[in-house]
Write a structure and sequence with these properties.
single chain, Rossmann fold, seven-stranded mixed sheet, binds S-adenosylmethionine
């Protein structure tokens, strides 16, 4: 049984809180920050993670495929194309990894940072990976009807949302009964040797390196701070359960540096 974690009445809704930024301004701050580094975002990602980030997204896409194509009874006819949303898609790496599964899904990459979406579309064109649709929208308020998605995925984006519980409620609204959710996020590894070593890299080295690669140190100070404040994997699992999801699982990758949560909206909902 998962433990439940309730915020105290006085505490604000849990969500990203960039240092020195009022809660109400957090989404604007986050969008401007990603807009500033968009053109160098991919390079920084691959260099700072030694390209392991590609493997994490591949694992996320594969897990989502297995869940989506496993025989939970679909509510709609099987011949309908499945709609898969990649929220906070950034430059589209997960969107394109999902498209590459070759399942004929309708894949939509959505983000609220215009610069990121332009790069995502250009990347798809460059790789001749046609078929994805791109949508500029806030992941907290998506322009889709209830029950209109078969799957929702998000990689390294959920942590940046202003209110995690409200976001989970929005994802639940969008998914059809039986639909699946996959959230890939950073976490803090707690292994005896890796934990302290990674903390040193993440809090000391990465901000300097990230600043050097992108010309903007702010996002790479924000990154470790936001990961430290992000719920632990069991906490996020508890919130998913409270939001109504079932079949909640989490898998730790690379010693727990990244964690993939998967869940299903109950068929009876
Ligand atoms: C760290 S990047 C992750 C990008 C991509 N998913 C990846 O795997 O590299 C976070 C992305 O989330 C987007 N984002 C943050 N808050 C958002 C929101 N409320 N609605 C839509 N996109 C958001 C940012 O614009 C940014 O592109």
């Amino acid at each position: 049984m998962l433990s439940t974690i309730e915020p105290s009445a006085a505490s604000p809704a849990p969500g990203t809180r960039p240092e020195g930024v009022p809660a109400a301004d957090a989404p604007r701050y986050v969008r401007a920050m990603f807009g500033r580094i968009a053109s160098r975002y991919d390079r920084a990602n691959h260099w700072l993670s030694l390209s392991v980030d590609r493997y994490w997204r591949w694992r996320a896409a594969r897990s989502l495929e297995r869940l989506l194509e496993s025989p939970a009874p679909p509510v709609r006819p099987l011949e309908r194309r499945r709609r898969v949303l990649d929220l906070c898609c950034g430059t589209g790496d997960l969107t394109l990894a999902l498209l590459a599964r070759g399942r004929g899904w309708e894949v939509i990459g959505s983000d609220f940072t215009h610069e990121m979406l332009l790069l995502a579309r250009a990347k798809a064109d460059q790789r001749r990976q046609s078929g994805a649709r791109w949508l500029e929208a806030d992941a907290m308020r998506l322009p889709f009807a209830d029950f209109s998605a078969d799957a929702i995925a998000t990689a390294f984006g959920f942590r940046n949302l202003a209110d995690y519980r409200a976001a989970l409620a929005e994802f639940f609204r969008l998914l059809r009964p039986g639909g699946v959710l996959a959230i890939l996020e950073f976490s803090e590894p707690s292994l005896p040797l890796l934990g302290p070593l990674y903390a040193w890299y993440f809090h000391r080295i990465l901000p300097a390196l990230g600043g050097w690669i992108t010309g903007s140190a702010d996002p790479y100070r924000y990154l470790p701070n936001s990961v430290t404040r992000f719920p632990t994997p069991p906490q996020l699992a508890a919130w998913l359960e409270q939001a109504g999801f079932a079949g909640i699982r989490f898998q730790r990758f690379t010693g727990g540096i990244a964690v993939l949560h998967t869940a299903r909206k109950p068929v009876s909902s």
